[in-house]
Amino acid sequence: MAISRGLRCCQRIFSWIPVVIISSVVLWSYYAYVFELCFFTLHNTLEKVTYVLVFHVCFVMFCWTYWKAIFTPPSTPSKKFHLSFSDKERYEMEERPDVQKQILIDIAKKLPIFTRAQSGAIRFCDRCQLIKPDRCHHCSVCETCVLKMDHHCPWVNNCVGFSNYKFFLLFLSYSMLYCVFIAATVFQYFLKFWVGELPNDRAKFHVLFLLFVALMFFVSLMFLFGYHCWLVAKNRSTLEAFSAPVFQNGPDRNGFNVGVRKNLTQVFGEDKRLWLFPVFTSQGDGHYFPLRTLCESQNPLLASEGRWGEDGGSDEDSTDGEVEHDPSVTIDVEY
To answer: Where are the beta strands (DSSP E) in the chain?
Structure first.
């Protein structure tokens, strides 16, 4: 037991290594750009002031979004998705798989759940002892179920999901902007150092590596950011892109795709003035989402206490609880 705790402690320590690497590179880039380039290399005062001001705007937004992506805890399912003491006892004492499956089905009727496991059974997490909401998955690194889990990112040492997906996207975008600004402003001085127009001092080393590092990170970030833009437009998570969510009628990669505009709104919110700032504006509570094949009035985005109250039941249909998955009823999809 002590060895196991020691291993977990070492794992937690080592998991911060990628964050330390990124932070070290960023701090070095700050010193190299502000001091070695702007203060020691530039002689034009207007150019120097302009570069420093714009650089600090990019630097602050990068640090702000990176901080939010790292330290925003993943959202976990509410207590309504956990088995009650009696249900848990009944489930664990039952040895017949078919009866266990039926127990979960009966409990799930009281919850807004539309997805299923590959076998068609209710998605249940044995480790967290809860019925998984739609788009929720268990993260073995965080050791918890995460709402609308996208992936576990080692570069932020955090699970990217419902609570911080917007922050992660902004982190990628401001990282690209940070790299582009550095590369664009450093390039002319890189050429001057290269051809010998500027003195061969220590600033040359920093300026040369600034350009290489900025371009290297930009290329890698460009592909990752482009991929996530495509995911947002399709309303898919990384996990759903590799394995389509399963509904009552079978797998459907576009099950949550309700149109580009509405997909964007789910992640960034209605107020476009806040889209570029790392403040939480995503719609809903992460427990369930509009479905492409269901009427919006039957499957609202925002959780309603009237729909699944403290007792877990539904005021609209206490006997059924779950809206039938009727493919003949559709909503207008905007592409």
So the answer is: 124-125, 130-131, 137-139, 144-146, 151-153, 158-160, 246-247, 250-251
Mean pLDDT, the chain, as a whole number?
A: 86
Residue for token pair 């320590």? 13
Torsion of CA 157, 230, 326, 113, to 10 degrees: 10
- Please check whether residue 87 lies inside any domain of the structure: no
The conformational region for residue 120 under phi > 0 = left, psi -120 to 50 = alpha, else beta, is: left
How many domains would you assign to the chain? 1
Please name which of 163, 300, 159 lies closest in space to residue 238, comparing C-alpha atoms. Answer: 159
CA distances from 140 to 3, 8, 78, 134, 233 (A): 19, 12, 19, 18, 28
The parent domain of residue 187 ranges over 2-71+162-234
> Mind listing the pLDDT tens digit for each residue in 270-301?
999 999 999 999 999 999 899 987 644 344 44
How much of the chain is helix, strand and coil, in % rounded to 5? 50, 5, 45
153 annotated active-site: yes
Q: Are 224 and 160 in contact (CB under 8 A)?
A: no
CA 317 to chain centre: 34
Residue 278 and residue 257: Cα distance in Å, rounded? Answer: 24
Q: Tell me the pTM.
A: 0.85
Catalytic residue among 38, 128, 145, 153: 153
Q: Which residue is associated with the tokens 């006997």?
A: 319
- Residue 318 resides in a domain: no
The answer to whether the CB of 150 falls within 8 A of the CB of 237 is yes
CA distance 30 to 26: 6
Assess if residue 271 is contained within a domain. no
Instruction: Classify residue 202: in a domain, yes or no.
Output: yes
Helix 97-108 / helix 85-93 crossing angle, nearest 10 deg: 160
Torsion angle of the four alpha carbons 156, 157, 160, 165, in this order, in degrees rounded to the nearest 10: -30
